[in-house]
Amino acid sequence: MDLNLRGRTAFITGGGQGVGRGIALQLAEEGARVAVNDFFAERAEAVAAEIRAAGGQAHAAPADITDKAAIEAAIAGAVQALGPIDILVNNAGVTVERREKGGMAPLFLETQPDDWEKILALNVWGMLHCCHAVLPGMRERRWGKIVNIMSEAGRAGEARLAVYSGAKAAMLGFAKAIAQEHGRDCINVNTIALGAVSHEGIKKGPLSPEATPETDERLGKMLGAYPIARGLRRLSRPDDVAPLVCLLASDRAAYITGQSIGVSGGYVML
Question: What family is this (predicted)?
């Protein structure tokens, strides 16, 4: 299926590794020009270089998305390099820090405002900054696609991840509201909810790409939470997420907006 993304420009936050990198590579493969944002400049440039080496068009746009002026400058630079932003993928996010040696995260009452700030700033304020920067151009051109990458914790709630669950739920509520506000402008806004994802940025533990149920006891237990993982014998990967992002970023999904779609192996079924 040709998604007809050639000539479109996409901006992906947190695109330097993992799910963001997978999305950036897939959008480029579909013909989109891709601006790769990451907090770490070397990561953003590495993925942009990977895309260019494969014959695509890409621009590294490193910036801290929690800094409104910085992300606006990065988006302006991407527009200058690649053209107006047609597709925004709000992928950058952070979860609560676990206790030492992979222990459980603390209960909400065991945390303090300083613990909440980073989670809320990256998952909520970063998304708001990016949307505020690209929506005027999308509205003017009467074409735009925004895809928020959230967590199933935001749809179902998860103990010991209260602030993170709330932040991801905010991404969903915001997407629905913006979808209503800008449907008249032909702007589609959707969310994709993920569970645990194994990717190259994780070097050890059950989410490492090298881990198997036979070599990692924790992974074996985790697979039981995901119905399809019991059969596939693995967790989700960036390649499971990127094709849906590309579809939602295309006119093949012109009549899909304000929706939340799980790519989590059945962890949450709505």
Answer: Belongs to the short-chain dehydrogenases/reductases (SDR) family.
